[in-house]
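Need NADPH2:quinone reductase's 3D structure for a figure. Predict it.
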Amino acid sequence: MVRAIRVHETGGPEVMRFEEVEIGEPGAGEARVRHEAIGLNFIDTYFRSGLYPAPAGLPMTPGNEGAGTVVAVGPDVTEVKVGDRVAYVGPLGSYAEERLVPADRLVKLPGEIDSRTAAGMMLKGMTASYLLKDTFKVGPGTTLLFHAAAGGVGLIAGQWAKHLGATVIGTVGSPEKAELARAHGYEHVIDYTKENFVERVAEITGGAKCDVVYDSVGNDTYPGSLDCLKPLGMWVSFGQSSGPIRDFNLALLGQKGSLFATRPTLFTYVAQRADLERTANDLFDVVASGAVKIQVNQTYALADAVKAHQDLEGRRTTGTTVLLP
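Structure prediction for NADPH2:quinone reductase:
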C-alpha cells in the first residue's frame, strides 16, 4: 500500500483526501515509479473541480507530472529499466508516493537535472516548447504577448522566447509579479490591475501590435487578446484560469484582421514517442545550457495538497510549485 490523494466527488480543494491505495505490479508496457517530486499545475484544479472530466471517472488521483526512480517494470518494456531516473507528463494520477506509468511516456533524466526541477518543469516546460517552436515558430523579429507572465509556463516561456530572439511582452497582476517577469526575459511588463493591456501593447509596439498572443487566462482577457494582434496574427488559447470563454464569435477573427486562433494541448503535440523525446530533450538542453532557469518557488508536502490548491487558485503562488511525497 502507498499513500495518494484521492478525489471521490468533484468540487473545491477540500474534496481531496490523503488515503492508502493499492497499485499492484506493472503490467505489459508499464513501469512502477517511486516519486521524489510531483508537479503542481493549474490543469490539476480543472480535473478536481470537474471542469475537465477524469478519463476513468471517479474516484481519481489528480496530477499530470512527476519525477522519480523506476522500481519495477512489466513485460515488454524497452524504454526504461529498474534504477533509471525518469520524469513524465500524463496520464492522470501523479499525486501519489508511487504509481504505474506507461513506459513509453517516461523520459530518462540527464544527470544535471534533479528530480524537483524535473517534476516542476516537464508539463510547463514542454508546454512552452511546443507553444514557441511548433504552434507558432518564434524567432528574431517576432513580437509576442504572454498573459500570466509570472506563472509557471510564463516564466519559462519568457526566458525561452528571449533566447530565441523575440521581443517579449507580458501581463501580470501585481508589482511583485512584474519584477519577477522582468527577471525572466520580459522586456515589457504590463500590470493589468493598473493599465489597459490592449492600449499598452499598442503603445509598446508603436501601433504595430503582436504576431502572436499566448493566452492561458481565458474569460478575463477575451476579446482583448484579439485586439493586440496585427493582421494575420495568431491567438493561442491554451488555458482558462479566469473561466472558460463561453461565446466565442468566429466572425471576430475576420473583423479584427483575418486572425488565426487555436486551442492546443501538450498531449496532442507529444502523443508520438518521437515527438515526446524531441520536446523533452529540447527542454533539457535549454535548461542545461543556462538559457532557461527553473526556480521551484513553493514546495508542499503531498499530504498538504488541499493547501497547495487553495494557494494556486488564490493566485498566491508564482512560477513552479512541487509536492513532496
